[in-house]
Amino acid sequence: MTKKKTKTKNTKTDSESNEVDTNQGINEETHEENTKGLSVEEKLEDAENRLLRTLAETENLRKRYEREKEDLSNYVISNFAKETLAILDNLQRALSSIKTNDFKDTDENIKTFVEGIELTEKQIITIFEKFKIEKVKSLDSNFDPNFHQAMFEVESEDKEPGTVVEVVQEGYKIGDRLLRPALVGVSKKKN
């Protein structure tokens, strides 16, 4: 049984079109042979099952494409976010330097300058939240090599070994993907 395919205008290339038509033709011929002796009700049930399988496959593909789209958007902004983290770090260092040296209370211009730095820091953090970039919770948590990078160990009797006792640099993640590990100090047992 040979079927002739009519050519339709299509956006696929000729090789893709031929491949799909050939496979579809084979599947239809095989399916026709398998359903030859069936009643109308059985054929209807078979067609319904094929339709449901096709719909399920389409839904699975849609979900997969959505996940890939979200992953891709996270990946695209991750390089930009890594660079922006350096700016946030510098702002936070400037604020901590001003607060520890207590320059803040001496001059009105310095107070205004500090407020400007604080507002800029808050704005960057707000933008990070908008793009699902969040700080890795480190202090007093168990050391996790997936999110932390140990810089040194601290002998401690009151903390369990492997507990993060100091954070040198905050870590950040975007969704489930790590942007930058937290640089931490980890407790160990006293000898």
Key traits:
single chain, about 190 residues, alpha+beta, Nucleotide Exchange Factor Grpe, Chain A, domain 2, 2 domains, three-stranded antiparallel sheet, three-stranded mixed sheet, about 55% helix
Q: What does this entry look like structurally?
A:
The chain starts with 13 loop residues before the first helix and ends with a strand. Helix 2 (40-101) runs antiparallel to helix 3. The model is unreliable at 1-25 (pLDDT under 50). The strands form 2 sheets. It has a 3-stranded antiparallel β-sheet. Strands 2-6-3 form a 3-stranded mixed β-sheet, with no helix packed on it. The chain is α+β, with helices and mostly antiparallel strands and 191 residues long. A hairpin with a 2-residue loop joins strand 4 (172-174) and strand 5 (177-180). Helices cover 55% and strands 16% of the residues. The chain has 2 domains: 14-131, no CATH class; 135-188, Head domain of nucleotide exchange factor GrpE (Nucleotide Exchange Factor Grpe, Chain A, domain 2).
